[in-house]
Amino acid sequence: MKLNAAIPAVVALYLAGSAEAQHVTHPAARPIAARPARPERPPQKQEKPEAAVAPASPEHLEKLMTLSPEQRKKALGSLPPARRTQIEQKLNAYAKLPPQQRARLLDRYQRMQSLPPAKMAQVRASLQKYAALQPPRKGVVEKQLNLMKGLPDSDRRAILNSEEFRSKFTPAEQQMIEDVSLVR
Questions:
Q1: Do residues 127 and 178 make contact, with C-beta atoms less than 8 angstroms apart?
Q2: Where is 92: in which H helix or E strand?
Q3: Which is it for the CA torsion 103, 115, 160, 130, positive or negative?
Q4: Fewest CB atoms less than 10 Å from the CB: which of 30, 88, 102, 121?
């Protein structure tokens, strides 16, 4: 009820105020052109901040490899024990590889990290399927992957779209080869 009584009072104040408002003078607003222009900000470098580097990145791998065993243990200390042990085993195995093989693995890892998340998950699934292949088919798929290794994308696409390729492999194998060839 109070609301209904307040409405006419608000209307009366508004109407009374509008008659008085016509006689009040306001200072003139500065025209837009007279306002000082904002100084342009210099373009900033688009570097990855430390927080933007993925935890499982090639940069972190290289950093972990340069740490002493004590420093590495401290860096991995916040991980669950099983995960920490798994990572330490992989780092030790990586450290024992010859430099050329480490460089190849690092290159593959960097290519994998450059993929969009959805494609990365798809490639991981294909790598697991590839690892689970039975020996006769695994040899055929391995041979095809070796033929495609290092080819430019256009040549790789030509092979993937060829009739010979499609007749030689099942659709699942075709997808697996396409995915794995991205990082291999």
A1: no
A2: helix 81-96
A3: positive
A4: 30
Instruction: Please give the C-alpha separations between residue 77 and each of 23, 57, 107, in angstroms, as whole numbers.
Output: 75, 18, 27
**pLDDT tens figures, 35-79:** 555 555 555 544 444 444 455 667 777 788 888 878 888 888 888
C-alpha distances in Å from residue 87, one per residue of 49, 83, 144, 168: 24, 6, 31, 38
Per-domain residue ranges of the chain: 54-113, 117-183
136 near 169, Cβ under 8 Å?
no
Q: Are 91 and 64 in contact (CB under 8 A)?
A: yes
The pair of three-digit structure tokens given for residue 166, joined into one six-digit string:
């499609």
Q: What is the pTM of this model?
A: 0.58
- 3-state helix, strand and coil shares in percent for the chain, rounded to the nearest 5: 70, 0, 30
